[in-house]
Amino acid sequence: MLVARAGATAVFLDGKIYVMGGCGEDESVTWMEVFDIKTQTWMALPSHGAAELRKERWFIANVLEGKIYAIAEMKHYAYDPKEGTWRNVVETHEESWWLNKWCVVDDVMYCYSHSGCCMWFDSKTRKWLFVKGSDIDCMRIMPTCGLASGVLKVANHGGKLLVMWTPMFEAINAIPMRNIWCAKIALEKRHGGEVWGKLEWVETVLTVPESFTFSSGVVVSI
């Protein structure tokens, strides 16, 4: 990289790695840079329209329809690599405050909010809407293994939503060993624009000490 960074955000798009943040909000010239895998070179990028984003306390980014989307505390932003410009997409939904996990499935953004609600982004209305279904509700409120506030990873697994979490029940009760749960959810878009989720599989996949730190996860097919 061209400058030292700490806690930066990175995404992969069209053979290039885009890196944002981690170098101070005042460094507008170096706030964003890109690594071209083919030429093995770094280049600083203009971040026009990113003044507000640089001042956000946090943001997480992903790729959708050839653009980089950043969800922050107050607003959502989109970056078009062809134009080199950021723009505000939508105000952050109250249920997506403190959002820290989201992914893209069939060109639709899905996320889990801090309260364990599964949501999807309607690009036409520019609103976050709740994924419906009794299975989704049960996963959030199950007494001993509900996923509220404990989501570790959300990923696209063959067109279905894969969710990993640790139950809040275990944290509240200071249980020394924590269970990591995993669930696979089939998504269906119904008439009227609603998205429904159906639980296909759920179980404990790993038991770890309470002091564990979850760094990242990758979905692979074997």
UniProtKB/TrEMBL annotation:
InterPro entries: F-box/kelch-repeat_ARATH, Kelch-typ_b-propeller, Kelch_FKB95
Domain of life according to the entry: Eukaryota
A Pfam match: Kelch_FKB95
Domain FKB95-like N-terminal Kelch: 1-206
PANTHER family recorded: F-BOX DOMAIN-CONTAINING PROTEIN, F-BOX/KELCH-REPEAT PROTEIN SKIP4
Protein name per its UniProtKB record: FKB95-like N-terminal Kelch domain-containing protein
Lineage summary: Eukaryota, Viridiplantae, Streptophyta, Embryophyta, Tracheophyta
